[in-house]
From TrEMBL:
Keywords: Signal. Residues 1-24 form the signal peptide. It comes from Bradyrhizobium diazoefficiens (strain JCM 10833 / BCRC 13528 / IAM 13628 / NBRC 14792 / USDA 110). This is Bll7357 protein.
Length: 177
């Protein structure tokens, strides 16, 4: 019994048993924080990240809190609200939703996520996933965008947002700290 337990511990430590040892950064890619790239507006600046490796190369993620900006009773109710609040227009004023959004849950908050095509100022086309989450009367918004496919950017961004560090930061931002 002891020998079997030691072997199991060794396999887990070496990462030989998939699923038993998971690092969110490995699944999400490797993200480097950068300066908030947008001009000042009525909301506090958030956090911005660029994925530098791990299958989401070049994807950028922008996350910020908008306190007191959500319908306290219904939260994020529909796709029009996602279009309006997610800051997608800060990246490019020429954005087009590609499909209806879907319900999503991140860090114990509920909301919606929707995919977009972006016509960038330099003429390039990018894909984006816009996310709006509510907590009581407050809103947390995020946009992941890049030259690749929106689903890949979305997956990597959602894994990053579920890390303990990001959950703590989101809670503090929504609490005004």
């Amino acid at each position: 019994m002891r020998r079997g337990a030691r072997m199991l511990m060794a396999l887990i430590a070496l990462g030989a048993l998939p699923g038993l040892r998971v690092h969110a950064t490995d699944r999400a890619g490797h993200w480097q924080e950068m300066s908030w790239p947008f001009p000042r507006d009525g909301w506090p600046a958030g956090r911005a990240f660029r994925c530098t490796a791990g299958g989401c190369d070049g994807v950028e993620l922008y996350v910020r809190a908008k306190r007191g900006f959500c319908n306290c009773d219904t939260g994020v109710a529909d796709d029009d609200e996602v279009d309006r609040v997610t800051d997608i227009d800060l990246i490019s004023p020429r954005f087009t939703p590609v499909a209806p959004g879907e319900a999503v849950s991140v860090a114990a908050m509920q909301g919606r996520i929707r995919h977009y095509d972006l016509d960038m100022p330099d003429g390039a086309r990018h894909a984006a996933a816009g996310l709006a989450l509510s907590r009581r009367c407050d809103l947390l918004v995020a946009v992941a965008q890049g030259a690749g496919e929106a689903n890949a950017a979305q997956r990597a961004a959602l894994v990053l947002l579920e890390t303990e560090e990001m959950k703590q930061w989101m809670a503090a931002a929504l609490d005004g700290r």
